[in-house]
Amino acid sequence: MTVPVDGRVRAVVPAYFHPAVDPDAWDRLVRCAPMLRLVVLNVADGPGERPDPMFVDAVRRLRQAGVVVAGYVDTEYGRRRTDDALADVERYLEWYTVTGVFFDQVSSVAEHVGYYAALGEWARGFGARVVAFNHGTHPVEAYAEHADLLGTFEGPWGAYVDVGVPRWVRARPAEQFYHLVYAVPPDHLGDAYALLALRHAGGAYITGLGGPNPWARLPDGLFERLAS
Asked: If you average pLDDT over residues 151-164, what whole number do you get?
């Protein structure tokens, strides 16, 4: 799924809420499928110990709507054993029939590029069609050769206001980059969306939620703002 020629930002949604707890949120994702670039499935900071039937059904509905769903895999900034990370990838693909992988806590330094290049290659070999690296900051450019999506910002609004963009980022398509911005004051939500273009990001998730898990629910008005 790519950003269309109208240039509108599409949502990259960390869907870290259970369908049994918030079924309406998953219904909203299905209804708003055209506005979604990626939905991240995080069962238990990974795929869990066994398939969860409610997540299986939720992913099936999203896939039928044409949404790319990616399984969440922690990499501990290059410290996690490759075999353990790939075991998570295989479980997501087998249990939930996801079509992508979302590698989280991805290093940004040159010494770990080879580690992530191998993860991405193996994930595609297992059947993943979309690979996302979530750095949370701008990495060295070499990472861009090994992932379809790069998360180049994750943090609160106060930090987003002053974030800079390396020259190499602006030389690549905006749809390769996404930003996750939380704790945005209500009167600055419009400013946050306006800054996305200046920050060269074609994907985003903007929320007023903060605290230990700002991804605990879908923010009100998310898709209305994306459609405007």
From this structure: 97
